Amino acid sequence: MLQGRTAIMPELGRASSTRPGQQSRPYEDSPVDAVDPAGYARAVATQARRQLIVDPFSGELLRILSKRLDWEHDTTGGPALPVDVVLYMLSGNTERPHRILSNTQQLDDLDNYLDMASTTPASSQDQPKILLLQGDQPPQCLNRLGVKLKVDPRVYLRHLQYLWSNRPSKLFASPSLPSASADMVSLCVVTLGRHEPSNTPLRSLRQQAALDMQAYLHEAFMGRELKIGDSIVRGYWVHSQEYFSIEQEITVSLQYRNDQWSLLIWSDIARPLSSGPRGPWQHQRDPPKSLRGALLPSVRLSIARSTHRVPPGHEQTPMDKLGSSTMHALRSSLHYGNDLNPILMAIDPFYCLSDLFRTSAYSIDQLLKLVEGRIQENTGYRLSQSHHDSHEDLLYHQDILNKLRERTAQSLSDIRQYRHSWPKYTDQDQRYEVDRISDKLDKDFSNLETRIDRLLTRCREGMSMCMSIASIHGAEKARLQAERIGQLTWLAFFYTPLSFTTSFFGMNLADFGQKGGLPTWLWFAVSLPVVSVSYMALLLFAQYGRK
């Protein structure tokens, strides 16, 4: 029996699609009620204007999205534009028909393709399906899918965060409340990379990487060098002079139409990164000949996808040499069917995402191993020679771990929520298999969460140790300085009695050796007793102080 749930939607969520068994509530100018792509773009713009009045925060986000979707009017009636979409029909048998949709004309004829791809006598509209978007997609693609699948604009808002991540308005796109992101899943995928070691200071590398990443995101926002299907990078971290990592995202939305569900998956992982805008992973080091950046293969995917081959005619650049296998493997892991049961895929949408969750978990696991090695180098007996550099490196990785902690906790929450709330038509045996996989995902992400907490504790302890060492070094410097001042004090005290007698005999007295003046030997006769008494008093006071 179908198990569903009714989410409480905020004002922004009024445009959500109708769930099975629910009565639709008419809402004027709602994007899900649009009948054509241009109407969908107009509906989002209308909703943005309305939202700016009642909620300027979310209204500003919708306004940015509406500007992007409004490009639809500039190409209406023009030639078909390229897109990168893959359609999968979940027929419930061993066959998994799929079709690549490469232009907007094919998206317009999506219903016909659904009927052609259907392998059962039942209507294709009664079959679950998956639409996979790879890399950057034009507004014309988003508007057409919005009409065909009744997509809530919040789904696009969630995935397009990089468009306003570095804008002066500092808008925070991700809704923090569960009601504001119902039936949406965002997964973090991290890929490690390696440069040839550089003599540039680590701080300079990180500062330059931050500037280069801002420039990359600006180019992605402007879209001048970004082509359809190019991969998107959300974050770039420099872990050492040799290793770095990039962060990408996969956004999943469960859609309902005609009492049937479908999955809309939008992945940042598409073409090799060398084909998109230049980012910090491609910029030259000093000397220029050391540019040999490459992405390291994922441990799990390199084993599971060992049969993958690079397409013929694909010329490998230094950026692709190690990275292409990973990127193609990650992309092929989104081609459902190799590791999943096709029958279970057609009856359980959460089961369809299990491979995505595993991909995210294994990528985070690989990053944690690298971070753990860096923490080990900066703590304990292997503390770096400069405690200041160690403290800075630990603080840098603490920020990374805090971000991973948040993403891992969110993924764990999605697993525990959607494994029960999303539709299930499974019998007892099928449910056992789905629960077994869900339990493994829960255990994996719980383990990641525990490891991140442990590494965060080591970071805090390491930074405290660096601060303690800095305090000890400061105290040692103060002690040495006090010793030097003491030596200067002894030297000054040696001349103090002599200066006293010299000053005394120099006050309005006749010159030594002159007729009628004082004899020279008198100065020595007075100075010697004064100096002797002064030194004896100093020694007695010093001995008394030691007792």
From TrEMBL:
Pfam families: CorA
GO molecular function: metal ion transmembrane transporter activity
Span list, region Disordered: 1-34
InterPro entries membership: CorA_TM1_TM2, MgTranspt_CorA/ZnTranspt_ZntB
A cellular component annotation (GO) from this entry: membrane
Lineage top rank: taxon: Eukaryota
Record keywords, A-Z: Membrane, Transmembrane, Transmembrane helix
Membrane-topology annotation of the record: Multi-pass membrane protein
Compartments, record wording: Membrane
Protein name: Uncharacterized protein
Spans through the membrane: 488-509, 521-542
Residues of the signal peptide: none
Biased composition (Polar residues): 15-25
